[in-house]
Amino acid sequence: MDMGDHAAKSGHVPVMLGRVLTLLTPALTGAAGAVPGRDPVCLDATLGMGGHAEALLRAVPRLRLIGLDRDTTALERSARRLAPYGDRVTLEHAVYDEIPGVLRRLGVPAVDAVLFDLGVSSPQLDEAERGFAYSYDAPLDMRMDRTQRLTAAEVVNGYPPAELARILREYGEERFAQRIAAAIVRERERAPLESTRRLADLVRTAIPAATRRTGGNPAKRTFQALRIEVNGELDIWRRALPAALDALPVGGRVAVLSYHSLEDRITKQVLAAQAADTTPPDLPVPLPEHEPRFRLLTRGAELPSDEETTTNPRAGSVRMRAAERVREAT
């Protein structure tokens, strides 16, 4: 049985699995500089359902995998899925910007590969009560970590109008942010907004009719914006990716799967800065301490194949970038 068949039988198809394995395996098998004499370590910083993690464990027999997730439901499901791999697997309830603290606590000074799959995981989408989807009615929750306090209901019912509009405009890239924010404020004055369906209906009526007829569900951008705000996703990502790069030795690799342009833009900027020669332009020769610390493994953002987007709906909007450390930080 190949990896794809195995993943499909377990009820979850990991996005761009073949490319993830191709890009990360060299760093885990010594070909790209893993330290001789110790087992390779991979950090799956967004464990989710554990599909990528399981495939990596199967592909690299001595691999030690550290899996992080802020969602306790995802951790519980992955723990069952990865149980056959015993003490090769360590799972931690943590947000991915906590990488330095987690590695310190585990006594792991460096990891050979890091994977980020930044999409909403299956448990969050599959469980109606989580409130991530506009396709069925549920409480306005959207917390990836249900131990935190802030929910989507608190955002839509408590944020000032200008702040609501800013979130919709910046995080949802919603051109009708002002109209939607005004509609939310009018509606919440009558009664608090507490359900996904009521919010989705409100967004639909706030957007001009001509726009509603194109581009999919008009609530999609609003729900994305609220999810990003509730979970602090972009601020966390700005901290997490540099922290992950710092944990990689020479030959170590990182792969990132992003699902909207805001995440991908941050990924592109961080990796480009690390792959740039920073020698001052007026000097005739490059300075060793200014040479690139990473090399890009992907040309721009890689897209999934047409076949994958047809068979795996989660892959529809994914963009992948990867890089390898080529020089220690000075």
Widest β-sheet, arrangement of strands: 3-2-1-4-5-7-6
Structural class: alpha/beta
Give the integer mean of the pLDDT values.
88
Q: Strand count, sense and closure of the main sheet? A: 7 strands, mixed
**Total number of beta strands:** 7
Helix count? 15
The span between the termini is 45 Å
Shape: globular
Strand and helix order: HHEHEHEHEHHHHHHHHEHEHE
Strand content: 5-15%
**Uncertain segments:** 1-11
Compute the gyration radius: what is it? 21 Å
Please bin the fraction of helical residues.
Answer: 40-55%
Blueprint (SSEs and pairs):
Blueprint: H1 3-9, H2 17-28, E1 41-44, H3 51-59, E2 64-69, H4 72-82, E3 89-93, H5 99-106, E4 113-117, H6 122-126, H7 152-158, H8 161-171, H9 177-190, H10 196-206, H11 209-212, H12 220-231, H13 233-246, E5 253-258, H14 261-274, E6 294-296, H15 306-311, E7 319-325
Parallel strand pairs: 1-2, 1-4, 2-3, 4-5
Antiparallel strand pairs: 5-7, 6-7
Helix pairs in contact: 2-3, 8-9, 8-12, 9-10, 13-14
List keywords for this structure.
330 residues; alpha/beta; 7-stranded mixed beta sheet; 7 strands; disordered N terminus
Account of the 3D structure:
By secondary structure, the protein is of the alpha/beta class. It contains 15 helices and 7 strands. The protein has a 7-stranded mixed sheet, sandwiched between helices. The longest helix is centred in the middle third of the chain and has 14 residues, at 177-190.
Concise account of the structure shown:
The chain has helices spanning 3-9, 17-28, 51-59, 72-82, 99-106, 122-126, 152-158, 161-171, 177-190, 196-206, 209-212, 220-231, 233-246, 261-274, 306-311; strands at residues 41-44, 64-69, 89-93, 113-117, 253-258, 294-296, 319-325.
